[in-house]
């Protein structure tokens, strides 16, 4: 999992990336290719 200050660039890496908010944190998740997972902050 990548930790980034901003997810703007990370969400366009793959068309299956989705942004979700969980427990006050912002995540990028990708069911098809889990190596694109990322977290903000």
Question: Any overview of this molecule?
Answer:
This protein has no helices and four strands. The protein is mainly beta and 41 residues long. The chain has one domain (2-40). Strands 1-4-3-2 form a four-stranded mixed β-sheet, with no helix packed on it. A hairpin with an 8-residue loop joins strand 3 and strand 4 (38-40). The model has no long low-confidence stretch (mean pLDDT 95).
Structural class: mainly beta
Q: What fraction of residues sit in β-strands?
A: 35-45%
Provide mean pLDDT, rounded.
95
Number of domains: 1
Overall 3D form: globular
Give a count of the beta strands, DSSP E runs of length 2 or more. Answer: 4
Which parts are unreliable, with pLDDT below 50 for 5 consecutive residues or more?
A: none
* Helix-strand topology string: EEEE
In whole angstroms, the N-to-C terminal distance is: 12 Å
Secondary structure tally, helices: 0
Question: How much is the radius of gyration in Å?
Answer: 9 Å
Spatial order of the strands in the main sheet?
1-4-3-2
Proportion of helical residues:
under 10%
Report the biggest beta sheet as strand number plus sense, adding barrel if it closes.
4 strands, mixed
